Amino acid sequence: MKKLLLLFTALLITLGCKNEKSEIDLDEDQLQTDSTDTVEEMEFKVLDSRFIDNDELWVPFESDLSEFSGEVYEEVKALVFEKSIPQIQQSIEEGKLTYEELALFYLSRIKEYDRNNELSLNSVIALNPDLLQEARKKDEQRGNITDRHPIYGIPVLLKDNINTTGIPTTAGAVALENNNTEDAFIVERLKENGAIILGKANLSEWAYFFCGECPSGYSAVGGQTLNPYGRKIHDTGGSSSGSGVAVAANLAPVAVGSETSGSILSPSSQNSIVGLKPTIGLLSRGGIVPISSTLDTPGPMTRSVIDNAILLSAMTGMDTKDPASEEAGKNVNNFYSRLKDTDLKGKRFGAIKSLMEDTLYIRAVNDLKNAGAEIVEYEAEEINLPNFIRLLNLDMKKDLPEYFRNYGGEIEFENVQDVVDYNSEDTLARAPYGQALFLGIIKDSATAQEFAAIKDTLKRNGTRFFEKPMKEHDLDAVLSINNYHAGFAAVAKYPAITVPMGYTSNNAPKGLTFIGKPFTEQQLLQWAYAFEQTTNRRKTPENYNE
After folding, report:
1. Residues 406-431 pLDDT 10s
2. For residues 400-410, b (16+ Cβ closer than 10 Å) or e, as one string?
3. Lowest CB count within 10 Å: 253, 274, 299, 341, which one?
4. Where are the beta strands (DSSP E) in 99-239?
5. Which one of the listed residues 240, 243, 263, 304 is annotated catalytic?
6. Using alpha carbons only, what angle is made at residue 374 by residues 369 and 376, rounded to the nearest 5 degrees?
7. What's the CA gap between 94 and 106, in Å, rounded?
């Protein structure tokens, strides 16, 4: 019974709320993993994609992969597998590795593990056909560039709601199969800093604001993403499912996700990686298929905190077309160079008493204490987030048409109704789990005053949930689990970072989540780094070590 509650809870809280509920409307007991649960396989209506031609996907790489021998793969693996970006760059500096070999390594692993076999994860929707040519160019130019960003030459996987030149941006939806666009602003920044785009990651379709009853990680275009720590057993989390899974299984060095409420924190913690949900405005949302212009933000998903800081810094910059991005110019720094500039001594973190029944959380809290942090246990105030679902409805109703007009490719859709009508022509292929949330968007409406009041109440309530205990107890941050309090962080516009803190007896990963005040990303990264270095809890999924 508890397993069913957990699955239902995951579907409810990935976006902070569904059916007018958020995580705080559920008993905290329902949010705890009972290590005595019997492990059962999940059942899915659809597993494999009907829209990805696997043979066509690999045509651009066949010749080069045929020459990338098993012996060379093993040599490269020793330098790359589970390694951080600085470690990879060190091997390249020493002449032991090239960016072309790095790209071939990840292509080899995607081909081996991602589709059409008993270990398949369905985490990648598309590959950059020019990947190897771009990697060779990075190798040729490396010596001529003296001030290289650490992201230089590193393949980056993008969630497939982020516009990318040369690769359709589908949001997992058949309706957007031919949505060929220019680069999103953050993709422009990545390329300016020397990153190479590896491809696009699968996701919960339309960023998990589409079907209502579908499992996280499912999209019509990409099929069902599966968790490498328990394939068909553990939930992938959503909506940045493919980003989390691919990084966890070493199919990509780093990935970019997006979050409205929990969509980075959930798959990061569920797949034992580091995920940062930045303050809204630190990173541009321009060119990203939206849910909510009020709450949306992209963010980095990586295996280590230092890689998270590097990827974050490579995407920052002020986008004049995104009003929320105006704050970015005031908060840009390289984030990664100062990770070791602090320790945990004297830092004050709030531990929520209702979470102190979770043994992994208790251990993580004790780890922080042993590292010098001061822990204050407190009772979280019972606060509701009324009309959360309506905020998303009303935002998407206006934001999606704006995306189509300003950032979309040559597609025939203008609004949500157009997409619903298109899907209704072939629901078996295009919407096998239905499209209940899109229908809800169509039905919802509000005056400008009503909408403003909804946003104001949510912002006030979410901020109170964190601000009151932080002021009363002089806290630097609040400690949570996974995405349990993502809804509050979303509406308060507080940043959050989750770091692997261990595994249940059923091998289900969990993350310790630090939630701080707006634009405290530098401090969050520093605290997360200190915790990571002290505990080193992440382990590779065992079936994906070869």
Report:
1. 999 999 999 999 999 999 999 999 99
2. bbebbeebbee
3. 341
4. 124-127, 155-159, 196-201, 218-219, 223-224
5. 263
6. 110
7. 21
Given 204, 239, 272, 284, which residue is catalytic? 239
The 3-state DSSP class for residue 284 equals coil
pLDDT digits 0-9 by tens, 369-406: 999 999 999 999 999 999 999 999 999 999 999 999 99
Length in residues, the chain: 546
What does the buried/exposed string (b/e) look like for 19-44 if buried means 16 or more CB atoms within 10 Å of the residue's CB? eebbbbebebeebbbeeeeeeeebeb
Contact at 8 Å (CB) between 431 and 211?
yes
Choice among 159, 200, 455, 493 that is catalytic: 159
Least reliable range by pLDDT among 77-86, 297-306, 338-347, 524-533: 338-347
Contact indicator for 282, 331 with CB cutoff of 8 Å: yes
pLDDT of 24 above 50:
no
Query: Residue 322 in contact with residue 286, Cβ under 8 Å?
Result: yes
Domain map of the chain by residue range? 2-544
Domain 2-544 of CATH type 3.30.930.10: no
Tell me the CA end-to-end span of the chain in Å, nearest whole number: 36
277 catalytic per annotation: no
Beta bridge partners of 376: 350
Helix (H) or strand (E) holding 224: strand 223-224
Contact criterion met (CB below 8 Å) for 221 and 57: no
Read off the pLDDT of residues 459-507 as tens digits, 9 standing for 90 and up: 999 999 999 999 999 999 999 999 999 999 999 999 999 999 999 999 9
263 is catalytic: yes
Active site (annotated) includes residue 35: no
Q: Give the pair of three-digit tokens for residue 433.
A: 């789990």
